[in-house]
Amino acid sequence: MIKKVLFHLTGFGLIIGGWFICIINVGLDRGANFKLFSTPNLVGLTLILIGAYFPEITTKFFGQSSSKE
Description:
By secondary structure, this protein is mainly alpha-helical. The protein contains three helices and no strands.
């Protein structure tokens, strides 16, 4: 149970981190030519996707030992 909560909190942190990177990139590029697929945006979106699927994948692989007890 504690592992599952930890996995979900880690995933949530990755989602928030990716969102923050995307927002900061858009804020810094306000006066410049905006590119949708810039490196910081791709890094932020990758973090969001990893954070979205992280809890399920880690629970599947590492949560098995707690359910066998």
